[in-house]
């Protein structure tokens, strides 16, 4: 999990390690996807007991293979097991319309997170679409 997040967020996105690996990690439920052949980790994500989905990361070589969908589907199963009624994500501004198409609604105002302008977007758990999702820090 740590290696995937470090490669995607620290190396590619240039997010400082201190921000990437935060105090919420021990509280979160984590999803890890491994390559069928090599058993190497290729994708990860987390969901907090509050319903926040974040740190969805897929190694570059696997981004065109719908691996992010596997991560999201796993996180949504956790949300259902936790009996959450809603999930939310802090979307980069250029992805807001994308998430709207998948039943997420804008909540609140734009804010900065890890140097990136974000918009909180929420969706009732029963309406979440299992379409292809965007990487999310």
TrEMBL record:
PROSITE patterns: GNAT. Residues 1-126 form the N-acetyltransferase domain. It comes from the Bacteria. Pfam families: Acetyltransf_10. One of its GO terms (molecular function) is acyltransferase activity, transferring groups other than amino-acyl groups. This is GNAT family N-acetyltransferase. It comes from Thalassomonas actiniarum.
């Amino acid at each position: 999990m740590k290696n995937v997040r470090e490669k995607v967020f620290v190396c590619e996105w240039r997010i400082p390690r201190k921000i990437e690996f935060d105090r919420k990690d021990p509280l979160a439920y984590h999803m890890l996807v491994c390559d069928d052949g090599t058993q190497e980790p290729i994708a990860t994500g987390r969901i907090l007991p509050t319903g926040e989905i974040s740190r969805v990361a897929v190694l570059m070589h696997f981004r065109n293979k719908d691996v992010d969908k596997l991560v999201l589907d796993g996180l949504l199963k956790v949300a259902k097991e936790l009996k959450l009624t809603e999930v939310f994500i802090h979307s980069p501004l250029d992805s807001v319309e994308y998430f709207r198409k998948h039943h997420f609604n804008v909540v609140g105002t734009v804010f900065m997170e890890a140097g990136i302008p974000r918009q909180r977007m929420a969706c009732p758990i029963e309406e979440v679409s299992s379409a292809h999702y965007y990487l999310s820090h």
